[in-house]
Amino acid sequence: MKTLSILGSTGSIGQNTLTIVSMFPGRFRVKALAAKKNISLLSEQIKKFCPDLVSVFDSATATALKKCLPKNTAPEILYGDEGYSAVATHAMVDTVVSAMVGAAGLSPTIAAIEAGKDIALANKETLVMAGDFVMALARKNRTRILPVDSEHSAIFQCISGQRKEDVVKIFLTASGGPFLDRPVKTFRDITPADALKHPNWDMGKKISVDSATLMNKGLEVIEAKHLFDIPEEQIEVIIHPQSLIHSMVSYQDGSVLAQLGVPDMKSAIAYALSCPERLPIQQPAPDFTAIGSLDFRPPDLKKFPCLDLAFKAGKIGGTLPAVLNAANETAVTAFLNNRLPFSDIPKVIDHIMDIHTIDKSPGLSDIKKTDKWARQEAEILIKGR
Ligand code: MG
190 alpha carbon to ligand 1 midpoint, in Å? Predict the structure, then answer.
């Protein structure tokens, strides 16, 4: 029996994780859940999975949640950073699914690693902001970081049983998002509703916008560098609109190993929770003859400058990836609230990266300070436009 905490239980990854848990009740037990403010869904999850401990964003949400639950079945309900940390470090839990949105996932994930938990990592921002620190901490605490991101799960599967020194390149595939073929001169008119319509994947709002700007792929390059300890120069992004090949690894004998599947996050989540065993999750293999052909092309960095900015931030390192991430989160939120045109998202990020004085070897507190600084500066820039 594997015991789980889920950070971000009401998000897309959290809900899919609970679907897998309910398919295999004899294998998984949910001990703790953390969510932000979606109490109607969270209270349903509590009734169904009976966790001991739950945490939400703030005291008002905790009070409202208590009112939704029958008194005799109510778990302990906490809130804020302390509550999230308690969910991440629950004594009876062996694996923490880290699936909160954005930088909010960093502190509870670190708390879970310090408590010796295995991490099923969906929150890529944790490694983007503090990859060196987090990977060193995981080595020190002998915890495993198991990728949930579909590309990284694919790479993880393609390198299993192989020698690291034989790897030549990682090919990170990208669907290209909803605006792959849209003329760049119309990018200013893109609305949040347009950006949320991803062609292949059903995901949360922040990651959907990141997919539309290709920032998601940029963050994944930095994530891959840390997870697999491989330099950016050996990571290539390829646009593959069908999203069937989830990523590939090439070796020095010219062989390329790829992992394929229908675009559905359940398979990557299930593999993180059960590898090397593969769970029978009732996922069909792709219908290859109906699909007919697979297409590939290079990414257009002029049209999608966010990917270029992420490569630059990852290569320079230090505090710059945290700046990239914070400025991106602030700009994406402003875009979703109709306060910033889609085409200005990369401009905000570029500017904040430009005015930042890079600390080449930051500690965790420096990274958190930088994150806060970059958000404030991005907000000032967006307000002043
Ligand atoms: Mg991904």
Answer: 22
